[in-house]
Design a protein that fits this description.
- By secondary structure, this protein is α+β, with helices and mostly antiparallel strands.
- The strands form three sheets. It has a five-stranded antiparallel beta sheet, with helices on one face. Strands 1-2 form a two-stranded antiparallel sheet. The protein has a two-stranded antiparallel ribbon with strand order 3-4.
- The longest helix has 27 residues.
- It is elongated.
- 18% of the residues are buried.
- This is SAF domain-containing protein.
């Protein structure tokens, strides 16, 4: 005889109905995290690359625009030498003031080096002279003078008077000191190299008729210079 306790009570299982599937799918979607686009990092890197490229291009363009074509020396050119086209080259520089532009090449050819030029030196108006040196009736004389016999800061183009003075260590007499002999009244400095602890090495353009005296007195250590105004005293 079958009792009520022996009867099996059906156990409710998942309902295989459209409504049941919809409920499970809805619960699954509600637990999912929001998706983040995976390409955000790539986009940021691309934008950064473009910005850097633009900045670099702008900097290069600025550097290029600041440069100008100027004249420079190919090799060493001694003071007083005539400058030829073989001595010159065109280079690009930036931030260099008072340089001679490449467009002035024809004007520079045939001029004279007012000072000794070294290879690679950029030309400026102060290192070239329009007229050949020495000119007709002129001579070039070199002197080595200590600090007590030449003004400091002499440079190419300065005008000096050349005096005959007693040699170093010779007290001489008052008359000679009060009225020194003038060897060359108006002389142009062609080049001046200031050597620390050793005075000044000068190249002067002097008149032909006094060149020998200036050279001989200079070799004997009996020359002193007095700087004159460029335009004279008048």
């Amino acid at each position: 005889m079958t009792t009520d306790s022996d009867q099996k009570v059906p156990v409710a299982g998942p309902r295989n109905t459209p409504n049941g599937l919809a409920g499970a799918s809805s619960r699954s979607r509600s637990t999912e995290l929001p998706r983040v686009p995976r390409r955000y990092g790539q986009w940021a890197a691309a934008v950064l690359f473009v910005l850097v490229a633009v900045l670099v291009a702008g900097w290069l363009w600025q550097q290029k625009s600041d440069k100008q074509e100027v004249l420079a020396v190919v090799h060493a050119v001694p003071a007083g030498s005539v400058i030829t086209s073989d001595d010159l080259k065109v280079i690009e520089v930036a931030g260099l003031k008072d340089s001679i532009a490449a467009a002035d090449l024809e004007n520079v050819k045939g001029s004279t080096a007012a000072v000794g030029l070294v290879a690679g030196q950029v030309l400026t108006p102060g290192v070239v002279a329009a007229n050949p040196m020495p000119g007709k009736g002129e001579r070039v004389v070199g002197l080595d003078l200590d600090a007590t016999r030449a003004p400091t800061g002499l440079q190419a183009g300065d005008v000096v008077m050349v005096l005959a003075v007693p040699p170093a260590g010779d007290a001489s007499g008052p008359a000679e000191l009060e009225s020194p002999t003038v060897l060359a009244e108006v002389t142009t400095v062609l080049s001046a190299d200031h050597i620390e602890g050793a005075g000044t090495r000068l190249t002067l353009v002097v008149a032909q008729n006094v060149a020998a005296r200036v050279a001989s007195f200079g070799a004997a250590g009996r020359v002193a210079l007095v700087q004159m105004p460029l335009g004279g005293d008048n």
